[in-house]
Amino acid sequence: MKFVPQTTVAAVVSHPIQHFAPLYRAVNDRNLDLRVLFLSRAGLDRYHDRGFGTQVQWNSDVTDGYRHEFLADLALRPDWQQPNACRRAAGRVWAALDRLRPECVLIYGYRHTFNLAALAWCRRRRVPALMTSDSELLGRRSTRARIVKRLALPPLLRSMDAFLTIGDNNEAYLAAYGVPRSRMFRVPLTTDEAALREAMDQRDIHRRAVRADLGIDPAALVALFAGKLIDRKRPLDLADALRELARRPHSPQAREVVVVMAGDGQLRPALEEAAAELDGALRLVGFADQRQLPRLYAASDLYVHPAQRDPHPLAVKEAVLSGLPVVVSDRVGSVGPTDDVRPGRNGRVYPVGDVTTLAGILDELRRGPDLLAEMARESEKAIGDIELAASVEGLLRAVSAVRSPHGRGSR
């Protein structure tokens, strides 16, 4: 694939985010001069995450390996709560783009003033704009929100030159608002694949060590959940499913099911009560960072995500990259024939909140080692479509398309 030498791409991003960094680093060797413009230091410095209910700080290397600068230090609050700061930040975005003069600009969504400022700069300077987001149609929206989106989004999206999509539901969302498929380029969300591969290379070691640390039978079927322990994620559904499972007839061939939860949040006290009642079937391990999670994936047989709404959870992707079968609710956005969770292949999907169906799936998998193994093989087959290499190629194809003489960026 040929590209204009040293094409400069500016990415306008709210703050350093752990799972964006691998893509930024990877394109450095692929003829793109990437400049990342951050509007906040949130995530780089230690901060209190209200969802997790604890202090959080990403690994210190989140900004290593690519060119970047901080244009402002906005608080991660809605624009209307800090209008003056947002106006100043928008002005700094415009000034930085004028200074850098990129041939292409990557914009993350359209919610913030600085996003719209970057788009306005592109239109004024006749520079191609790429947009990426995790929007999907699964979540329930008010009638007013649907009407506003139907009126406002199509003209806004038409002003973008191309879209970096993250999955099937994301593409369905864009198509519903009039974006042609020819302007969509699949760029799956990225993560620290090296850490996952290293953990998988030592899977047996981690499996024995983690299970020994938690007092879990080596033969048990371990289902992992990783995320905030909040209402939207519905972790209590897993406790209810375990109760339902305990009431079902138990055969000697059926494995014990143990759910391991990695995370923290407001529901932790309720989950601790449930864990005490469930006599070892539910284990809470607290917040786990990017160094600890790979060991938990390696020690597990299955990943479960029961969320009420989750556009494209990174934990689901990491589970698939780790070769795990996945069970998710029908409100999780990473489901589709070419996405992370492929129903009937590496995944099972159930109606959100339907604890009986969730328990039935767990019961089926604990009784069917061959089925579980086949689902794991299907996850391994999906890796090539969702790994970092696919993300890099998708970004390069998008840049090539909008920079070509016949692309929209030539208008």
TrEMBL record:
SUPFAM superfamilies: UDP-Glycosyltransferase/glycogen phosphorylase (SSF53756)
Membrane-crossing residue ranges in chain numbering: none
Gene3D superfamilies in the record: Glycogen Phosphorylase B
Identification of the protein by name: Putative glycosyl transferase
Biological classification of the source: Bacteria, Bacillati, Actinomycetota, Actinomycetes, Frankiales
Glycosyltransferase subfamily 4-like N-terminal domain ranges (all copies): 71-189
UniProt xrefs under PANTHER family: SULFOQUINOVOSYL TRANSFERASE SQD2
Molecular function terms, GO-annotated: hexosyltransferase activity
Biological-process GO terms, alphabetical: carbohydrate derivative biosynthetic process
InterPro entries xref list: Glyco_trans_1, Glyco_trans_4-like_N, Glycosyltransferase_grp1
Keywords linked to the UniProt accession: Glycosyltransferase, Transferase
Organism: Frankia canadensis
Domain Glycosyl transferase family: 209-381
